[in-house]
Amino acid sequence: MTSKKYILEMFPYPSGNIHMGHVRNYVIGDICARYHKLKGDEVIHPMGWDAFGLPAENAAIQFNTHPKDWTLNNIKNMKEQLQKLDLDLDWERELATCDEDYYKYQQELFIDLYRAGLAYKKDALVNWDPVDQTVLANEQVIDGKGWRTGAIVEKKNLSQWFFKITNYAEELLSDLDNLKLWPEKVKTMQKNWIGKSIGAEIKFKILDSDDYLNIFTTRPDTIYGATFIAVSINHPIVNKSLNQEKIDNIKKEFEEINDDKDKMGVPLPIHCEHPILKKKIPVFIANFVLDTYGEGAIFGCPAHDDRDYEFAKKYSLPIIKVIECDDKSIPYSGDGIVINSPLLNGLNKEDAIKEIIKIFKKNKVGNEKINYKIRDWGVSRQRYWGCPIPVIYYEDGTYRVLDKEELPVVLPYDVNLKGKGNALLNIDDWRKIVCPKTNKIAFRETDTLDTFVDSSWYYIRFLDNKLEKPFDSEKVNRMLPVDKYIGGIEHAILHLLYSRFFMKALRDIYNLKVDEPFKQLFTQGMITHKTYKTQNNEWVMPKDIVLNNNRLVKTKTNETVEEGPSEKMSKSKKNVIEPDEILENYGIDATRIFMISDSPPDRELEWTDEGIQSSKNLVHRIEKYFSQKLSTFNLETEKKVEKFIHDIEKNILDFSLNKCVADIYTLFNYLEKNKIYLNNSTLSKKIIICLFPVLPRLSLSINSLLFNSEILNKWPNIDLELLADNNIKLPIQIQGKLVTTFDTTKGYKKEDILKSIYKLDKVKNKIVNKEIIRIINVQDKIINIIVK
RNA sequence: GCGCCAGUGGCGGAAUGGUAGACGCGCUGGUCUUAGGAACCAGUGGGCAACCGUGGGGGUUCGAGUCCCUCCUGGCGCACCA
Questions:
Q1: How far does the CA of A623 sit from the C1' of B2, in Å?
Q2: Which residues does residue A561 pair with via DSSP β-bridges, in sequence order?
Q3: Which of A79, A82, A587, A673 has the fewest Cβ atoms nearer than 10 Å?
């Protein structure tokens, strides 16, 4: 029975050269793909290029070239490098996201998303990267800095395109439970990112006004302890209550705080009414209220929230305790019994929340509410080298999303990248058009799509990269999800969450039957290498170092070099190893072996000269082994080979590739130690086939030498009878401690074996003069004798 | 601060609750070789031994690296998320 297997490694950004991290990634995938092909599965194993993006623009300026030329040239180079690795890839499926043939279908998808209400435009405070001069998605801002430039991100109010990922927040969260073959870690990260909290929305009436302030809380049970309201500086009520100058001053003050955890607030000239107590409570602008979460406003309950407590202390606001428990500390934010709250007294947290929500509902001042931290995905980028958004704007400010017949909107080639901002803005003869539908003057959208849009559906396009529509539904239903998706953990949120959203959105638009894009996710570890520095703190490349009189020195200058810790390979620290050189010196097979041998594929792998050398030695050893003349072999040999087939198969399927290498060593250690040479026997054939996924070159060459055949196919079936080894070494324990082992066969009779065991010296000595009170016999596993 | 993961020889790492340290690296001794970053053989957790050993302490069990509690250490993620 054959089944489809879609095996995919995250496609690379064509930066110019592949690095060792790529090699490890693709070798892992290649082993899987080759194995499944041998099993007779219908395997898809494509490769392509994540080809849009800012580095191309920067490189174009730096090297006085064009992003497209630079990118296409890099693709050519990297493809050659990959081909040198002899990966079993479906090159006929190759695609590059910067090809018109790819992005025109992305523009179609954009139109579909728009028509489905999942793409929309709005004015929004967005993250602005001043160095790259573009907007960033929330996911691309790390610690307030741009993910690529490290520049402090500014807030800008811009009209931007968004994808409505929030529509899928609940499903993106709940479906994580169905992803049984994803690392828990990644699922946890996505879960936190989506950030679901269950609580209540409460309306606080603004006194002397018809307006209300909405706040979200997970602790409505502490409502009686609310003594103030705090809003973010960007909350709409601030604009209504203060003039711009004042607001700017407050913003400045907030920015000048040294410790950003320090609480600071400014009272607003308005007050709210407590929704239950009807008393007047003050409203502050506070620096610790996030405008991006909930309603951008909170009620402060100082007795039961650390931040509110700090704030109340600083501004001498009342602190009312409404939760009682054994822990007398203030503030206390745990569970307890409600006090000082006439309508809730005596209830526990859970009941109090239910009860107060009932009351809110009755009084029409609040409701239960589920809040998600995730916000819609901003996809506009003010960059040239990306997929044009198929929209035009009229002079009156209205816009129209193009029809599919009007596609593609082709990215113009002639461009000047040396100016400030988005180069597309300056290409007038591209930008300005006469709208064919209205005959009015119109201007093209000059923002391009975030490159994460490109990578959100490339795995779908791979199924049929030449089709004259984005994809074929029947094929998608049949071939997706990707069975094994292999890549770095750095994409845990961004790419993987966006892709999950895309799959679900496309499912709903096109009635697809696929809920999730990636059935199994495997995150491979990075490759590290020792770092080297001269006394002058200059990094030195490992290949420029020699050992001279027990001293590490730089070859050219003879300077002393100090060895530092092993760190992720990076150009800046010069601790990189170039794949091309390794391939040349050690060959493909040794490189593959080393990529998987020293540590489990999901952990980091330290590059060592000894490691790559011993991998090469193994390849030679196997080659030499098969050149020996055929010897006799016996049933035991057959059993060992059978076990090898079984173990290596299991380990490939589990991604325990380091154990595959151990399996290979174990087999050849046994064969050579016993001088059993299998040459061109049927056992050899089986071994060679099983070696093929890991050592394709070697297996092919041995196969053609011994069997005069170019073909390796059909993974051997396992003979269960041979696999079952009836001879066992039975561990014998006394008081649960190992005393000896006893050679016997499976299915022994307990009574018989005990008679023999009691005669063993080691056992006899320990039980003499003692009473045997219990015998535990786990059949075929262990015998434990308990004495008194 | 919160959450998750992990701590096993000199090192990387193996062990469905059932012989801890598979396999590799390194190291020690030896063989062969003009030589070797080659190959081969033997050994390699600690201790002379009885025994002791999976970060520390406690527990469950006939039996714990594995399960539970607790503490320590390290890594990763999130971080004023109301």
A1: 55
A2: A534
A3: A673
